[in-house]
Amino acid sequence: MSKTYYSKDHEYIRVDGDIGAVGITDFAQGQLGDVVFVELPQIGARPKKGEHAAVVESVKAASEVYAPVGGEVVEVNGELEDNPALVNEEALGKGWFFKIRIADAAEFDDLLDEEGYKALIASQA
Amino acid sequence: MTHPENEKPARTPLYARHLALGGRMTPFAGYELPVNYVGGILGEHLFTRDSAGLFDVSHMGQAILKGPDAARKFERLVPGDILGLAQGRIRYTQFTNAEGGILDDLMVTRLAPDALGERLFLVVNAACKAQDFDRLRESLPDLALEILDQRALLALQGPLAARALERLVPGVAAMDFMSGENFAWNGADLFITRSGYTGEDGYEISVPAEQADVLAGALLADETVRAIGLGARDSLRLEAGLCLYGHDIDPTTSPVEAALAWSISRRRREEGGFPGDARIKRELAEGVTRRRVGLALDGKAPAREGAEIANARGEIVGIVTSGGFSPSLGRPIAMGYVPPTFSAPGTALALMVRGRPLAAHVVALPFVPNRFHRAPKNL
Fold this sequence. Notes:
The structure holds two protein chains of two kinds.
Chain A: E1 3-6, E2 11-16, E3 19-24, H1 26-32, E4 35-39, E5 52-58, E6 62-66, E7 71-76, H2 79-82, H3 86-89, E8 98-102, H4 114-124
Antiparallel strand pairs in A: 1-2, 2-3, 3-8, 4-5, 5-6, 7-8
Chain B: H1 15-20, E1 25-28, E2 31-34, H2 41-50, E3 52-56, E4 61-67, H3 70-74, E5 90-96, E6 102-114, E7 117-124, H4 129-139, E8 144-147, E9 151-157, H5 161-168, E10 180-185, E11 188-193, E12 202-208, H6 209-220, E13 225-227, H7 230-239, H8 266-271, H9 277-286, E14 291-297, E15 308-310, E16 316-326, E17 331-338, E18 348-353, E19 356-363
Parallel strand pairs in B: 3-13
Antiparallel strand pairs in B: 1-2, 3-9, 4-7, 4-8, 5-6, 6-7, 9-12, 10-11, 11-12, 14-17, 14-19, 15-16, 15-18, 16-17, 18-19
Helix pairs in contact in B: 2-7
């Protein structure tokens, strides 16, 4: 049973055991508009919580994606190379960016659950 | 509709329509304008290339400069041939400074003269309009400057633009590219030019502010026409290889460096008589130290304005002034300045993005072929 957490920077991490799939939220992809390129991290990279992990380029601009928790990158979504629009079509599904082996579960503490994240975007809308 | 930068952004006559169409509004050059509507930039861009896009460009400055010998006097401020401009014809030119840098770029249409003398219709950039109009008043005090701040400006661009506008305003389909004429529509006096900023056939329509929304509504009622925001306006002009003032051209870049020498006629090159003529003549004769070029990236990651350009040895030789994803080509493109030794099409360069080199090569501009209207030749 997976559980999804959200950062205030509009990343999500869907956690399954000690592995989490990271991407940007549906709200974030809507704000960015058409995604044309995603720069993914190297497998084996070890971003700390809040550190730069990826870049998402829309027609408009480049945006940094930060690691919602620290850990080791164990897999990247190669499908985004040929089809970056997956981020727009299915941000929380097939549009994930990378999977990370979570270093410290305590880092989830200041992330938001779905309800908390909904409240955050409602306040920004 | 002139507006100081530090105040709340102004609204164009189409503001309510932008909101109703789901426009994502942003402050731009002192105005609140849509970046895109619900369709998104990519879709709006491709729609304009396939059909007809309607753009609200009411933020741009419109004015009529008039008086005895207005064309000859106006040539003191610009390198373009205005004296040789026939009535109803349009010239693209630039305001230059004493160092030959570009203060703004603009479109000039020669109107029919009136009792007071010659008349020139000017369309200038929104961010520059206050300073442009000040300079015109100071430099040409014996001419009258009528600022048309009660008129909106709509652009209709794309291969189906002529058909769509002809349905409302009979006669426009017969207009030549780079010409302008008055038309009456629904009691409104329109000044329509066959010109634009997308590389497509199309029109810019100057319309009294109070009739602008009705005209926009009538155009948008045609299923071949959709509203297009600033985002696609930028990607369309980039593909067309057109300069964006403040980015690709500025007070330090000359028209020759900017690859705009085509806009300076032989007579003006020989005679000079415009600000910065010495530099421009020298550059035309001896060459430039940098030149605006088109850059096609070999990979998928875009390079944006400000990215450094490196040669094959990794030395920084230039800078990107506009860059992004080309929706029509499905790949990233950019424009930037490099020394002439690196400006030949095919030259391999690298664009530095987040500290890493992205392979690119110089390509001829425009990136996407222009499809301006050409009148059939009389055989």
